[in-house]
């Protein structure tokens, strides 16, 4: 007996209706990317392993899908000794094998796998910029909408195969880029009808400055990781974790204002200025945020809100300036639906120094879930036809096909039922496909050069000429 077909965990099939909704989101994002001057590029779905490995930290490396080299690979114990780490993996998780075993395993993996599926779009983009630097006009504004793969634990809104929608600018340190990216977020979500999103912003220099003024520069990562949990574990929980990580209790007294960090953007900037007055690095961050905030406020946002969140610490080892994260409206329980930031040396990992960049990403799958929950997809977003022409036989089908040909030239989605079967079955097909209209073209219609148009929702039926048919289906 044949086994029941299935798909790998963390992947999905998409129905015609789901694909139409996803394409609606992608097309909206794409149109606005191009409106803001971003140009499209595409990179291969897989890269050389050495392009990806070591660029995302130890945790990221573990989540990269590796591709076995093509051809046969035999484990001949007389020629190749299997490393002890292979045996270790049979009894332990990848997290518990020691450093020597991991090095040994990586060497072995390199013998059987030289390529890997891309983990994100950023590192391939950095590789692209370095490889094509002589063909690119800088500053280079690129967008990329392609799938990525991660060997992550699947959960709601998180999959092993998913799309990223990125827009980046490289070759410019101007903070006007950050101002434009805030506007881009606002424009996209407004276009999607998703009002009330909160664009959270922080700055890596501010986090470094806070660690400096409290005397915990050597504990920057521990400090910010704990601070980032304020919403989840509260003030007492954050303080407890900081103390456990070796941050002095006296330092926590200096950082106390962060736990009651409220007010308008300007109020928060003023509080940060007082707190970071003795930190040159921190004050640079304050000035950068003030520039972005002031100009966004002058230009205005349509439906989004820009908010300074001093606990925001995403990509700390990666970002060097502004950090962005977009939260869905509070009526929806969902993680971030976008994020990004400024990086001063994106291409340095491939040998091209001093190439500053800034970029943002849209979380397609999470945005889909939010729009679905809030019922924000327009009714016109559908994979279905506008009308089904009923098939009464070859002569009638030819008459119908002539009209169909002209309607399609007007970009109206219509189709002919292919078989001359019972009319009831054809209407039933239209109902199941959610096609709103049926067009009847039998002997009487042909003799009068007319068409009978039936609204399958209301049941109303009218007789029209071709122009009337076209106008009715365009309405």
From TrEMBL:
Reaction it catalyzes: tRNA(His) + L-histidine + ATP = L-histidyl-tRNA(His) + AMP + diphosphate + H(+)
Aminoacyl-transfer RNA synthetases class-II family profile domain mapped to chain residues: 1-418
GO function term, MF aspect, one: histidine-tRNA ligase activity
Primary location class: cytoplasm
Keywords: Aminoacyl-tRNA synthetase, ATP-binding, Cytoplasm, Ligase, Nucleotide-binding, Protein biosynthesis
Major enzyme class: ligase
Listed EC numbers: 6.1.1.21
Family: Belongs to the class-II aminoacyl-tRNA synthetase family.
Protein name as catalogued: Histidine--tRNA ligase
Lineage of source species: Bacteria, Pseudomonadati, Bacteroidota, Flavobacteriia, Flavobacteriales
